[in-house]
């Protein structure tokens, strides 16, 4: 019988909640250090231009200005790579590639002085031709963005060839031609998705300072070890700074949702701090919060199925508009391609993808990375196919999704709760009773009503980044847990404290999590790929177990029983077979820790620490047939949405939303609920509201603000039911999965299908706005 | 405004403390209340989300009414009583306001960046409407954005706080 859990799965107060409700939490924005200077950045007014002259003398003459940085100051700096497989970029270049690209930076005594100084920098540009549309940029003769790829497609070996991102994958396979030949129904469409902004409430802010020993302290909004991995090589190359002299701190981040710290700004801050001998803060501005956004994608999808609804072939061709750079084009394209490969089981498929450069702003990772676009495109075609073949939605989804032991690209699914998610969502929504032909049902108020369903799979801890953790047990029985990952709102510290408490057998409240600081915590992965629950959690469990083994040896002496037959729970250590034989955790720690007890002339106790190191290649079993990383967990989701559409105004109201997700073992119940609800709502924003508009004339972003870029408010939250399906993953800590991204992904396709069911016309691009609906209905031109 | 300038200083009460700010020294004519609170008075509990009156993160109370401190000039606060998140609980014994307790208990937050503004907005609502409906809570806080999407639990928190205040 499995051991009953005391902490895991309960409703737990969030670690850090007290600081957050009293205003005492320290966000990066709140960091203020003595003698701190403030930085501002001069941005390009042109989408593509060479800087032929730059005069900074006026700015430097302004009282209070301490330094002005231009490309010539950074010639000895290496290029920086913004992401895991992003392209090396100069921090400041002689050529600018989009409206808003960085031209120069000023640091001054106050932000006002720095801002005023920007106007005193004279720049002479030679304007170059520019291109904004990805398909246009791939045509012969389009303005060249990158000398390495003169046909404007990243990692493409020949003009017209796709980006090489699939060399190690199995995303193309089987006999596509044969698959379509045996299909009874075939559908094809191009599905387009928009640019969306992560738009976290806290803007991207960095503070950097150097001390007399050459120690560089960096406060950012992301995992300090991730920062170290990116900034460290720059400081090593330029200043010879060793890794042990770069300190990263992130106590609390006001949301990130995939957005990473801008390494170009961070490098300039480090350089300016070194140059002036004073700490420098670059406070992010809301109007700059468009860097690294989710890119536009054009997805040409073709799918075929047999009479019984079995998928026989899928092809997808994706063109992604990277703008001037993408921090991880390869990974995003792979994730787009995983929609037909991971979620759907189809023997014959091909995926071809192009990461195109244009003169739009840089793009990057966003919660639901790639999967969001890929699933929207593929799901739209599935819904068409279901209608054309004439099968039932439920049977189509149950029949065609990947399952246990199916290989997905280079990974194998070990456990999936999707069937249960689908069936529970169907039951909760009353799906079967609400079926009707598209465009045929009206509410009493005259609005058309519809219902839609979509499914998705996404990483549930997918990265194989290793992580360490450290546990210190004190004489009074309290415990410090040192973890280096960043708390961005996902509740990672709550999850790690719960895992630590459960493993050590103590109360959750007795654990204090020491916030991410490279001076305190050992190496950790960053909050991306939903990996912290499993990776960092794995390390925390091992660290707690390490400490527990030492404590059990001490308890064995007290209880006169071998440690192997002892167990821990709720602050007690006891003999498993006879729980009455027990000793309180605090009695044991008080007796031994910090004291010198001689046993067989050897000191015992004194100090109890635990160290844990977790890497999927070490901790998850693998074999040549199932190589490392192939068993990383996936989360599965099914959404069912009901909408009411006003065909006079084009307004869509979501009247009921069911989100059912396979969340693995729930660690902290309220945190998990918040993640599901928040992720779903972000998906609703993606589907109906959010659209970063870039001027077709010059590519300039027009709405990097909350007035014109609409994120969901209190009034946009529909009645939502979150259903958590708990499958216990055999390869992860307590069977958990990372869950924060999953529920965003099928929101948009489920809403699109519901809108189609309501009005009988399909909207093929996101967001589904009133103007598109009215156009589709022929009510406006 | 002219009168204020002639005095050479303005006086406001921040969380019950009389605060005198010398004009052109501690407060410049263009300083927003948000700047004064965060930079001059080091009360960083009030957050800057947009600095443009769009997100509600900087909400504080002025004479009991919720205002956006990023869009209020400090010079216009002469003689006003300002309450920030730091002034909500009891500063001496650390006892939390029922709203703060409820936000912890009902997990009415994720990253917590919107929380101070959200709680101050809720405080203004409960001071005026002691037993609000969920709809009234949503309406009152519709200008306070939470990008993490914790809205359901925020509404739960505010309703629970209202019930707790009623029970005393």
How would you describe what is shown here?
The complex is a heterodimer of chains A (781) and B (168). With 781 residues, chain A is of the alpha+beta class. Among the domains of chain A are: 17-24 and 463-619, Aldehyde Oxidoreductase, domain 4; 31-128 and 200-288, Alpha-Beta Complex (Aldehyde Oxidoreductase, domain 3), CATH 3.90.1170.50. In chain A, 26% of the residues lie in helices and 24% in strands. Chain A has 18 helices and 31 strands. In chain A, strands 3-7-1-13-10-11-12 form a seven-stranded mixed β-sheet. Chain A has a four-stranded mixed β-sheet with strand order 9-14-15-16. A four-stranded mixed β-sheet of chain A has the order 19-29-30-31, with helices on both faces. In chain A, helix 6 crosses helix 7, helix 9 packs parallel to helix 17 (747-759) and helix 16 (669-688) packs across helix 17 (747-759). The radius of gyration of chain A is 28 Å and the shape is globular. The termini of chain A are far apart. Chain B is of the alpha+beta class and 168 residues long. Chain B has two domains: 2-87, Ubiquitin-like (UB roll), CATH 3.10.20; 98-167, DNA polymerase, domain 1, CATH 1.10.150. Chain B is built from six helices and five strands. Chain B has a five-stranded mixed β-sheet with strand order 2-1-5-3-4. In chain B, strand 3 and strand 4 (65-68) form a beta hairpin. In chain B, helix 3 packs across helix 6 (151-167). The radius of gyration of chain B is 16 Å and the shape is globular. The N and C termini of chain B lie far apart (42 Å). Chains A and B meet through helix 1 and helix 16 of A and helix 3, helix 4, helix 5 and helix 6 of B.
